[in-house]
């Protein structure tokens, strides 16, 4: 048997050693030492370089020599559908309703396209699933509790590449290899509603609690209609038949507290003192224990409404939030010559399929009955034959497959890293090159990769500088191209070099680079041409381009003009959130087509039009990093932040040439995607790079009634090339119950996921309509859903603002969004900072988006060990979470605010001497430094506690939040207070005022 399972450690696979696309088609000029590109071209060793002025001109013999002769990658450039054509962005103005003016209520959940997102309409299957002859259904038996945990049994090595039989299947599109959605060639027939009703696992009756709540007055579907067949279904057959998915109530997760109706005007403090947990879907425990971790995959509604009409009534958005490439401690990895997938819809076999018997399984997305392949009958974990239902694929909602050759369009690409540095006068002034080059030197050996890793560097000001790092040179050579109108690549074969072979030259260059431009007077920035050059250089392989920019680009294509008007910052209307040119988006799409992702590091004190520049990352699946006012001396905190973030950036896991598809059970439809990517074909997301810190969101609708369905599933499949050159597929599957009443929909609402999805939608709305539209829509989302709850679920009108327990924090989170940098009004939001915040909303996993929006506040001057966590002999205090209001502060205390990427420790004026001396290490308040970003490690229990707590917070996330210690008279105090979202500001309501406003609208 060839199946193997391993944990996610120690990649071992063999890879094709040579990469066929790297052979340059044409060499411009053989270089030996000082080479010449015709009359006035100069190649100079770095030591001779005296600043700008040495120039390469295009060799006259070959006009356009490089571009025309690049070996082409067999990745087709997909013609852009009109809706994705960068030049064509039709959009309705002002509303989710096309062409309509903003008229409350704005219905977020309607599926009108907005161009800020990428939208598709999945083809619908018009046929019904096949039901094969045998109508006996059974639920398969889940793992017994006696089974050893998967990870303990996995072999860690020897992942054999046993699938390569010598012939490389070359497909002409990724769509084909990953497999489309519902295929156009169904052989479906024989619709059998009785059968489809029995699909999936038996769903237990609802808990008594559900029936005890106020019956819905207008939904017309009493809860009793959910009395599905509750006993064991189908035949009992050893070993599959011992059905324990019975009607037992014990596994139901909803706590009685969850059934409460709350009057927010009376119970104002609904914020739990411990971190808010996502709701647990109301599934039988045997299903739920196999379900996908909500950190990876969650839905705004953990109970899916069975019809669009019901969803419309709830006025809540339906969508998924994903963190698909998150770093995982344990990840089962399967190597098998057969990856078992539904023959019809290409779903990967998963814990929520139904085994009809040992030889057949029924797809939980399209209901097709599939055969179990012979190989799958053997379980590599138990080494038992005849247990397909115990295979790791059927026991893990999150799993990774080693992909055989049919999942490749070309041999897996090598890891390729290209760095593009702004070296204009402005850039040199900031001193950033020192930090970045040092960080690269420190982490050069930690870049994810293997013996095939390639690296290259480009610098630019008004001209573009290339660096030959060919093995054997005594030092790097700089090549200057001054023709920025029609950029060409000199010596393409020596500019991206094998890191191992040229490591010393690379190190030489990194040590020299920061000093090379110190005397430059060149103020211009030809960013656009530099990006074009970088794109050409990377086109043959794909890879990651890291661009460092410190100002508005001024020369050549992609040059931009300042357009921020400080006086208009406070206005929610006339601000420039849309790109001023489509150059960056178009180039990003070209990059995407060649498997190049562009990460932008913007370090600028001046307006740099991030709305335009950011497109280069957004559509190429890159990320944007922003360091406003970066300066190596004047802004040490930013320097520290850049260093820490670069450390993470350079060493974190990376997937190349990736695509992601999200499938859902027939009847549901995914229509709008949020995140950084390009929608390549209908619903296939193109991700030239995927990183573990990126989040995605999608919106969904109910296209066909799910009346006959008890459970629905969602599956994301991410196909990527690892830095070791393996083709892998990471699959997550989430299973949720379908419900028929409005009350159940509300009870299962996930308020964090809803807020996160609304934030994504509001960014689109800000861009396609206006900021004030987006703000109105956010407020209306609360008003509409709570009005629906009032009128359709509550049996009697009660005074106050009644909300279901699940939505008790909804008004607070929406108010927090209104005060978030993306959507706030007032004069302190600089345009680039607002755009960056919007980029973050789109690209961050939900957990960080929520921390940015509604930070957590703790009192930390009196930490105790009561209720502390004990992790590896460390005691980590767990202070209660406080409401974000100055009422919760006191001058004699110290308070820590965790806003995700930043931690702020505000120390009150009268803070106790004990804290000052035992934690801050100062004798009195006046001695707290104005800039303090570290706590001293003192030999006191107080110091140990707070340091343990802060370290623990930092360990919870992949990036490094900077700590600011803030005195009461510090200018940073304003930032701290800005996050007090429950308080009134000059331009925003307090939480209580907001509740009154909502109540007024709801009771209208
Ligand atoms: Zn299927």
UniProtKB/TrEMBL annotation:
Lineage summary: Eukaryota, Metazoa, Chordata, Craniata, Vertebrata
Keyword annotations of the record: Cytoplasmic vesicle, Protein transport, Transport
Sec23/Sec24 trunk domain span: 412-650
Gene3D superfamilies: beta-sandwich domain of Sec23/24 (2.60.40.1670), Sec23/Sec24 helical domain (1.20.120.730), Severin (3.40.20.10), von Willebrand factor, type A domain (3.40.50.410), Zn-finger domain of Sec23/24 (2.30.30.380)
Domain Sec23/Sec24 beta-sandwich: 655-739
Biased composition (Polar residues): 29-53
Protein name: Protein transport protein Sec24A isoform X4
Domain of life: Eukaryota
Record-linked Pfam families: Gelsolin (PF00626), Sec23_BS (PF08033), Sec23_helical (PF04815), Sec23_trunk (PF04811), zf-Sec23_Sec24 (PF04810)
Domain spans labelled Zinc finger Sec23/Sec24-type: 339-375
Start and end residues of each Sec23/Sec24 helical domain: 750-850
Gene responsible for this protein: SEC24A
Low complexity biased stretches: 63-72
Residues passing through the membrane, by range: none
